[in-house]
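Tokens for chain A. Residues wanted.
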């Protein structure tokens, strides 16, 4: 690792995002299993290790349920104690030279995961007003912090019409910029992050894509994806949706459309990707390496889902990996070495 005293994070621009490389951290991903509190505070140790291993980016997919009630009547009542834990993560990032990207995985009115929200962000003005309120709060909270330290990723994996998405994103961006005009803002592509949004290129936003295709490799036996039930064990190259998937197929479907977006002056980053722990390890690593090569050639950074957990390099609980004990955690050394290589 480079001497931290002699380097700084790159200065991002919406038309050219740095090749940030790192991980999603999930402490605020959902409210706790026993009530509205989140699972716990962010761990500074994670930031220390991520920096030690030469990465410089974390994405924080968060549920607003962690600091506010799902009851629309109380959507604007915020739990300051929990929000200070988000502040801690931003500060850990600064201390360890890691860019922190804040994402609302669950925003008032929408989440890609169940349970459904009580109102619909895409059609209900009350939900949109609350969503704007939450993002304006974060804009106030981090106003003055440089973009090299913190950025905003507005809505995780939208699934709606382009017209609805443009209207909602425009309102959120206007709300943020009314408070902090220069904040770096990133939006996920449509179709759950996979489709670039050319009609938003003029708003001077970065865009975030995904790296989960084909899903019979990335999500084999993932119980939350019913369409993958009872499939045969994956291979790489793979067969999925009547297509033979190779590195060249990935280039055609997942790289070329986003390269066209880049030509419109939009920076691109891979906000999520990874391979669930039921995919055989050797298949996962071969697939991952092809993805990493493509993104390096494109000049794009990436953020693995996740750091600790079933997709990650720590405590992934794969049946076919000989883990190394690392300060009380189980480390997948092969996956870490592969990620560091690219």
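Reply:
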């Amino acid at each position: 690792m480079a001497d931290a005293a002699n380097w700084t994070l790159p200065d991002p621009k919406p038309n050219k995002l740095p090749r940030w490389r790192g991980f999603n951290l999930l402490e605020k991903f959902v409210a706790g299993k026993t009530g509205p509190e989140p699972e716990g505070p962010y761990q500074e140790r994670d930031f220390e290790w991520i920096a030690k291993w030469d990465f410089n980016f974390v994405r924080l997919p968060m549920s607003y349920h962690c600091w506010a009630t799902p009851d629309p009547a109380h959507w604007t009542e915020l739990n300051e104690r929990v929000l200070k834990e988000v502040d801690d993560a931003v500060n850990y990032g600064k201390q360890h030279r890691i860019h922190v990207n804040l994402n609302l995985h669950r925003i008032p009115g929408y989440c890609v995961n169940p349970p459904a929200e009580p109102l619909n962000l895409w059609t209900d003005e009350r939900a949109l007003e609350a969503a704007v309120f939450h993002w304006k709060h974060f804009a106030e909270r981090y106003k003055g912090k440089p973009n090299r330290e913190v950025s905003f990723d507005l809505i995780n994996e939208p699934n709606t019409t382009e017209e609805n998405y443009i209207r909602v994103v425009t309102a959120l961006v206007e709300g943020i910029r009314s408070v902090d005009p220069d904040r770096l803002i990133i939006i996920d592509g449509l179709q759950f992050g996979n489709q670039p949004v050319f009609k938003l290129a003029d708003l001077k936003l970065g865009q975030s894509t995904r790296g989960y295709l084909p899903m019979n490799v990335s999500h084999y036996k993932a119980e939350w994806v019913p369409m993958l039930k009872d499939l045969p064990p994956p291979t790489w190259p793979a067969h999925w949706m009547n297509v033979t998937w190779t590195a060249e197929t990935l280039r055609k479907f997942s790289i070329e459309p986003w390269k066209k977006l880049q030509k419109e002056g939009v920076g691109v980053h891979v906000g999520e990707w990874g391979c669930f722990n039921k995919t055989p390890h050797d298949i996962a690593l071969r697939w991952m390496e092809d993805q990493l090569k493509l993104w390096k050639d494109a000049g794009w950074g990436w953020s693995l889902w996740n750091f600790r957990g079933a997709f990650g390099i720590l405590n992934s609980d794969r049946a076919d990996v000989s883990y190394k004990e690392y300060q009380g955690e189980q480390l997948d050394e092969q996956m870490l070495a592969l990620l560091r290589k690219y």
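The domain at 4-341 is CATH 3.20.20.80 (TIM Barrel). The first strand starts at residue 21 and ends at 24.
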